[in-house]
Amino acid sequence: MLKVGILGAGAIGRVLAAALDSARVAAELIALADQDREKAAALAAELAARPPVVSLDELVERAELIVEAASQAAVAELMPKALERGRDMLILSVGALLGHEDWFRHAGAKGCHIYVPSGAVCGLDGIRAAAMGRVDAALLTSRKPVAALEGSRYVLERGLDLKRLTHETVIFEGSAEQAARAFPQTSNVAASVRLALGADAPLLVRVAAAPAARKNVHELRVEGEFGRLTVTVENVPSKANPRTSQLAAFSAVAALRNLTCALKVGT
């Protein structure tokens, strides 16, 4: 069976660990790692498999596939170690991948793979197909509850008082790369769309704070040679972390199952 190590014992890491522990995915969870070792130990104690809690170096040494469910900073630390050992990786903090084509080249040279799940958005298979032709315009609008945006780098640096908002307000407009820097914990959808489209296709990202919202809503519109694509996803936030959509956790489990099953559906 595929030997999987998980980096990160937060909301998504817990869902993935539970899926592996219950055999929903035909793979073996062989180790956990987190900068908060006690948090990882508490998660391990809840699992029937009782996976060991190890250092990042030992996780890379033991696992055939490493699932990152921690942070952009964790990706930057993991990637050189995993690539050097030729390990496959499933990356959840997708924003960390933007601007690092060198990592993709290194993975190709080592014969290993970097997997990106669909996360909290739908339609990436259609976007990848559309990008085989000409893409004329792409717009991603993300509407988020105030709780999902408070404490983010962009909000803090600009001193935005989101609690004073009385109606939906666009607080950011820019590129996916800028969004990944501005909102490291909540920009994974923008980064995934950028990777699916390719570096040269036009993409505008808008982030709106919605005081009355109870869901994370992503609206994606793409036009090009293929025609027009419109996708709207209304995501229920994770109970454990309002910055994370429940669909993102399910997507990570589905990505793992896709790696280990015979039938693969979608582009």
Quick description:
This protein is an alpha/beta fold. It has helices at 11-21, 37-46, 56-62, 72-84, 101-110, 124-130, 146-149, 153-157, 176-182, 188-197, 246-260, and strands spanning 2-7, 27-33, 65-68, 88-91, 114-115, 135-144, 169-174, 204-209, 216-224, 227-235.
Key descriptive features of the protein:
single chain, 267 residues, alpha/beta, 37% helix, 24% strand, globular
Secondary structure: elements and pairs:
Blueprint: E1 2-7, H1 11-21, E2 27-33, H2 37-46, H3 56-62, E3 65-68, H4 72-84, E4 88-91, H5 101-110, E5 114-115, H6 124-130, E6 135-144, H7 146-149, H8 153-157, E7 169-174, H9 176-182, H10 188-197, E8 204-209, E9 216-224, E10 227-235, H11 246-260
Helix pairs in contact: 1-11, 4-5, 6-10, 9-10
Q: Helix amount, in percent?
A: 25-40%
| DSSP, total strands | 10
User: Structural class of the secondary structure composition?
Assistant: alpha/beta
Alpha-carbon distance between the two ends: 25 Å
Q: How much is the average pLDDT?
A: 94
Q: What string, H for helix and E for strand, traces the elements in order?
A: EHEHHEHEHEHEHHEHHEEEH
